Amino acid sequence: MPTLTTIEALEALYGVPHERSVRKEITFVNEDYRAFIEHAPLVVLATSGPEGLDCSPRGDAPGFVRIVDERTLALPDRVGNNRIDSLRNIIVNPHVGLLFVVPGVGETLRVNGRGRISADAALLDSFAVDGKRPRTVLLVDIDAVYYHCSKALVRSKLWEPSHHVERSRLPTAGAIHRRLNGPSFDADAYDRDLAERVRTSLY
NCBIfam families from the entry (predicted)? Predict the structure, then answer.
């Protein structure tokens, strides 16, 4: 199957971007873009390193990504599975991408920048929830900020309840682990206790 292999071939096929598509990209958080960050309970973090790519969802109460100043964001790293794939990548390659998602809103906000990982005690304390601090805080020095139009979310019907998928139509976490770990894995017990484990280990 033939593929495109040059920038020139791509540009010939797609043409020139509209002027508005170029002008919406700025190098700082302005008042309009601040609103997206402050209302987003979910951000997807993309990184790249020697072992490959990582794209990781991060979620918390709206505004959990702190706007330190117009060129700097701070993102707490809450309790997880300790794979730390994103953080490993950032150590060797600081370039990151962020996608901010606001429930019910079609537009998203994209931020490209360079990440730094901080374990400063005072900074960790400032992000504590119920007395529990994050392990680290990711500081992002902003290179570019721009909003993304709603077409992808409109096409996907992501926010339309009539298109929401019943959880029972997908394999459970226990079933996934049993397939990977063998028939001796107690999938029923894993699934039975999962909601409580999640509830007690959010922070």
Answer: PPOX_FMN_DR2398
Read off the amino acid at residue 44: V
Give the domains, in start order, of the chain with CATH numbers.
7-156 (2.30.110.10), 165-200 (no CATH)
Residue range 78-120, pLDDT digits in tens: 988 899 999 999 999 999 999 999 999 999 999 999 999 999 9
Q: Check if the beta carbon of residue 62 is closer than 8 Å to that of residue 34.
A: no
What's the mean per-residue pLDDT of the chain? Answer: 96
The residue assigned the tokens 């990977």 is 180
Please tell me the distance from the alpha carbon of residue 28 to that of residue 72, in angstroms, as a whole number: 8
Q: Which of 66, 56, 62 is nearest to 41 (CA)?
A: 62
Nearest to 107 by CA among 151, 68, 67, 73: 151
**Smallest Cα–Cα separation from 112: which of 46, 23, 38, 39?**
46
Q: Measured between alpha carbons, how far is 166 from 171 in angstroms, rounded to an integer?
A: 11
Considering all CA atoms of the chain, what is the largest pairwise distance in Å, rounded to the nearest integer? 59
What pLDDT is stored for residue 30 in this prediction? 98
Tokens of 69: 């100043």
